Amino acid sequence: MPHSENQPFQMDTTSERIQRHGKELWDRLSERGAAPEKILDDRPLRPFSLGEVAEILGVSGSYLRQLSIDGLGPTPELGTAGRRSYTLRQINELRAYLASTRPKEALKFCPRRREGEKLQIISVAGGPSTTTTSLYLTQGLALQGFRVLAVDLDPKGSLSEMYGYFTDISPFHNDSMHAAIRYDDDRVSMHNVIRPTQFDGLHFVPGSFELEAFEQESTTRFHNEDLRYADASIRMVDALKQVEEDYDVVVIHCAPECGCFLTVGAFEAATGVLVMARPQLADIAKTAIFLNFFSHFVSLIEKAGRSVNYDFVKFLVTRHNPRDVSEQEAVTLLRDSLGDDLLTATVWESDAIREAGLKNRSLYELSAGAVGRSAYEQAMETLNSTNAEVMDIISEVWGRPPMYVSQASRSTTAGKANSQSRGLSK
């Protein structure tokens, strides 16, 4: 419709024109039902073979097979040639059954925290591999029967994407940690921002661009209050207390893109911190610089009159090529400097891990055939060994005897000896 001669023509600004195009496209998609509030990849988790379940539970395949024949525990799916497989929910049902029938081994089968054992909140920080480490730690804990909450503090939602939750594809509002810690009246309960994953017992809080708004407002408050530290970190602590009874472990993903106020909140809420370190001198220098920031952030909390007493601060070597002499020397340097605070296991550089990541999947979600059996088994050995150390640290905090490292070692040995027979388990 042409403009009236009596009505002055007003040209859109660039931002208004871009916004108008976006709204027009979105409205037309909405009319066709093609513009959901968020994009969520909800493909189910694959079933696990009887051999895999036996390794996860630390029992023999023949024992599980006999339980199935006797009609005890959950009923597995029967596939080709009668091969049995279980969903993760059925594995957890097996855990409950075994814990009730073998009470002396109840902690082994059902490791959830008991009365008097405090929630473990682990902040994963320090640079590269925080996303991968957070992903494999949370999924590994869930596979072992823990109730786990992952909190993604990355404004880009990198961990959320690995859970199949693509927050940057479509716009949404008040659906991240920002909603539970924001300063205005739109603040919601922590329960409102928790989402399920395909792993039974594992939930997560998405990361989104709205986290940047929290950083901006926290910065403004900081400067307006004569550089007195704002209550940003206390808000994180209070939000997690709302769901304290629902979980055994919370893992907070502190990506390099996280702002300082979000990171300080993660550090104050944490009962333990896991710091990433790559075995190259330039990257070790970055780790040392990060530790200076870490120390500064903790000192700010202490200056505000709140003590910081971690159950542990541990370091993890990631993307390690054990055949590289310079990297071997770098690991030795780290071990000489950090002592027992450096985990014994290292996560090896792996094409299998990288290929799974390109599929927005973890190796726990894929079968060996998807990335090659040899590469798959080698990568899983390093990942499971790392997770086992962390779980033993948690057990120690709870006053329990360590068992996961020895169990992982036995599983690895058995796996190498019986890889062919596992494939034939029914």
SSE layout and pairing:
Blueprint: H1 14-31, E1 39-40, E2 48-49, H2 50-57, H3 61-69, E3 77-78, E4 84-86, H4 88-101, H5 106-109, E5 120-125, H6 130-143, E6 148-152, H7 158-162, E7 165-166, H8 177-181, E8 195-196, E9 202-205, H9 211-224, H10 232-241, E10 249-253, H11 260-269, E11 272-277, H12 281-303, E12 312-317, H13 325-338, H14 351-358, H15 373-397, H16 404-423
Protein traits:
alpha/beta, 2 domains, 3-stranded antiparallel sheet, 16 helices, 11% strand
- Strand and helix order: HEEHHEEHHEHEHEHEEHHEHEHEHHHH
Low-confidence stretches: 417-425
Which percent range describes the beta-strand content? 5-15%
Helical residue percent?
Answer: 40-55%
- The CATH architecture of the largest domain can be given as 3-Layer(aba) Sandwich
The major beta sheet can be summarized as: 7 strands, mixed
- The rough form would be described as globular
**How would you name the CATH homologous superfamily of the largest domain?**
P-loop containing nucleotide triphosphate hydrolases
Structural class: alpha/beta
Our count of domains comes out at 2
Region (Disordered): 1-24
Biased composition (Basic and acidic residues): 14-24
Biased composition (Polar residues): 1-13
Protein name: Plasmid partitioning protein RepA
Please characterize this protein's 3D structure:
Residues 14-24 have a biased composition (Basic and acidic residues). Residues 1-13 have a biased composition (Polar residues). Residues 1-24 are annotated as: Disordered. The protein has 426 residues and is an alpha/beta fold. The protein is 47% helix and 11% strand. The protein has helices spanning 14-31, 50-57, 61-69, 88-101, 106-109, 130-143, 158-162, 177-181, 211-224, 232-241, 260-269, 281-303, 325-338, 351-358, 373-397, 404-423; strands at 39-40, 48-49, 77-78, 84-86, 120-125, 148-152, 165-166, 195-196, 202-205, 249-253, 272-277, 312-317. The strands form three sheets. The chain has a seven-stranded mixed beta sheet with strand order 8-9-6-10-5-11-12, sandwiched between helices. A three-stranded antiparallel beta sheet has the order 2-4-3. A two-stranded antiparallel sheet has the order 1-7. Mean pLDDT is 87; it is low at 417-425.
